[in-house]
Design brief:
The protein is of the alpha/beta class. It has helices spanning 30-38, 53-56, 60-69, 83-93, 109-122; strands at residues 5-8, 25-29, 48-51, 72-75, 98-102, 127-131, 135-140, 143-146, 153-168, 175-180, 186-190, 196-199, 202-210.
Length: 211
């Protein structure tokens, strides 16, 4: 497997361009391409742009930019899947299993929830991590350790159920307890140690780590 890919999707744009070093592939959806231009993103670093390109017509400007900076254009007209879903399929097909995502939140909230649903579909196929101005968030395996988080806000969100959860290093620990969406969730906890350990037996758990 190749090491790491970076994907920009059409949610809230990052305030600044993230560090691009360490990525073997950089991609964006057609909607995200427009905010990358406003951020003065170095288009020579871009490897591919994908999407339905609004009414199936690729803008002439994108074609010119692709020719000038030599990035690939992949048209994905399937309306039964979101542009995010289709972009992940392309990246995973290129043998990437670690994918950082910007633009997953903000804007219309149905898009945010839709992006979480897509991430859930791919959680066993790739290590997806979302980043925004407030936090990073991602699905975690049944045994998980995160480092360098002392003092940060940690939220645990069941999707929709996570059972028999144990945590170490949080201000309010869990001892073989269940979290169930609509009944009890684990938001706004604080990491008291540099390292936090989380274990659970069944279900799925989404972690939010505050910036």
């Amino acid at each position: 497997m190749k090491n790491k890919a970076l994907l920009f999707i059409n949610g809230e744009a990052p305030k600044t361009i993230p560090d691009l070093s360490g990525y073997d592939l950089i991609a964006c959806t057609d909607g995200a391409f427009h905010y990358l231009k406003k951020l003065k993103f170095p288009l020579d670093k871009l490897d591919l742009i994908s999407g339905d390109f609004d009414s199936h017509k690729i803008e002439e400007e994108i074609i010119r930019q692709a020719q000038a900076h030599q990035f690939e254009i992949i048209e994905t007209p399937d309306q039964n899947k979101t542009d995010f879903h289709k972009a992940l399929e392309i990246i995973i097909e290129k043998s990437f299993e670690n994918i950082d995502v910007y633009g997953g939140s903000g804007g219309e909230q149905d898009h945010f929830l839709g992006n979480l649903s897509v991430a859930f579909v791919f959680k066993d196929k790739a290590n997806l991590r979302f980043f925004d101005q407030y936090s990073s968030y991602y699905f975690i395996p049944k045994k998980f350790t995160i480092s360098d988080v002392k003092g940060k806000m940690i939220s645990l969100m069941p999707f929709p159920i996570a059972k028999n959860i144990e945590t170490k290093g949080l201000k309010w620990p869990l001892y073989k307890e269940d979290l169930i969406l609509g009944e009890r969730i684990g938001t706004r906890n604080i990491a008291e140690n540099k390292e936090v350990v989380i274990k659970y037996k069944k279900g799925d758990l989404l972690i939010f780590v505050g910036n």
